[in-house]
Amino acid sequence: MCICSTTGLKITLLILIHVAAGFNAAQLAKDITMLDKLVGHHHIVLIISITLCVIILIVLIAAVYAAIRHHILILNISLVSLTLKCLAKGIILIVCIITENNLQRTAAHFWFILCWIFTAACMVGNLCFSMRLRENLRNAD
C-alpha cells in the first residue's frame, strides 16, 4: 500500500488531526463572530456550519484516541464522519458561490475553505492509517 511505516502514518495522522482541529476551532470562532452579520439563508447555512464544526471537533478527539490505541472501529467511524463533513462543506460552498458573489459575506469565508482543505487532508491520512492497520491485521493472521 504505502512505503511509510505504521508509526510514520500514525504520527502524520496525529499531526493532521491536531491541525484540522485547530482550523475547525478557528472557523468556529469566525462563524460565531459572523452570526449577527448574516441574514436569510446565509444565517441558516452558518448555523449548519457551526454545528458541523462542533460535531467534527468531538469526532477528532475520538480519532486521537483511536490513532494512539490502534482502534479500527473508531477510526472507521471518524473516517465516515470526516467524509460526510467534507461532502456537506462542499454542498455549502456550492450554495454560497451560487447565491452570492462575495464569499466573505457568506458562510463560505476564508477560514471555511481552509478548514475544508485540512479536514480533507485529515480524512486521507485517516484512510491511509486505517488501511495500514487492516493490512497489518491480515498479515498477523
TrEMBL record:
Q: Where are the transmembrane segments?
A: 44-66, 73-98, 110-129
Annotated signal sequence is 1-22
Superkingdom field: Eukaryota
Quote the protein name from its UniProt record: Uncharacterized protein
What keywords were assigned to this record? Membrane, Signal, Transmembrane, Transmembrane helix
